[in-house]
Design goal:
The chain is of the alpha+beta class and 172 residues long. The protein is built from six helices and nine strands; from the N terminus they run ααββαββααβββββα.
């Protein structure tokens, strides 16, 4: 992620925060500025450390759910969202040993469930998550402070809870 952030900044000629602000944040109608943690020389960390309000985080998830469209404009090309939803190679992903994510994959910095709802998620540390469930027309923006940084510590509770909410929303 850090390398990707560096490449994007070099190609665009803009700092990561400015680029995200202009291409996504302003277009989703964010209420507040988002912030990136920076390293010792002031370079934004692209692999983590983005701070935003929960409502704005949810807006970002809704843009993903709506195939990259939000506020009557195409913000991210639909083809990019379709590529994310297809996911990566599940066989290669299984070799990584994520015991709490059987049948999943990883694509374009997004975790893809390959479940019957087509759900996918952006995951941070300590339980932070943006869960997008297209079939249930549901986005969950979650802030958390789990004492263990790694997601497997909260996956056994969080992942079934997300699916239970989705299934409840889809009841007749």
């Amino acid at each position: 992620a850090e390398l990707l952030g560096w490449i994007v900044q070099r190609v665009s000629g803009k700092p990561l925060a400015q680029l995200v602000s202009e291409t996504i944040w302003q277009k989703i109608g964010a209420e507040e500025d988002a912030h990136f943690a920076v390293d010792g020389v002031g370079t934004a960390t692209a692999g983590g450390g983005m701070a935003a309000t929960l409502r704005d985080f949810a807006r970002l998830g809704e843009m993903f759910r709506l195939d990259g469209r939000f506020n009557d404009q195409q913000i991210v090309p639909k083809a990019v969202i379709d590529d994310i939803r297809r996911g990566g190679d599940k066989t290669l992903f299984a070799k990584a040993g994520y015991a709490t994510l059987p049948g999943w994959s990883y694509r374009n910095m997004v975790w893809v469930t390959h479940n019957e709802h087509g759900a996918f998620t952006l995951r941070g540390i300590h339980g932070q998550a943006l869960w997008i469930d297209p079939a249930a027309e549901m986005v969950i923006a979650r802030f958390a402070s789990n004492p263990v940084a790694a997601n497997p510590a909260n996956d056994p509770i969080s992942l079934p809870a997300y699916m239970a909410l989705a299934n409840h929303l889809m009841k007749d």
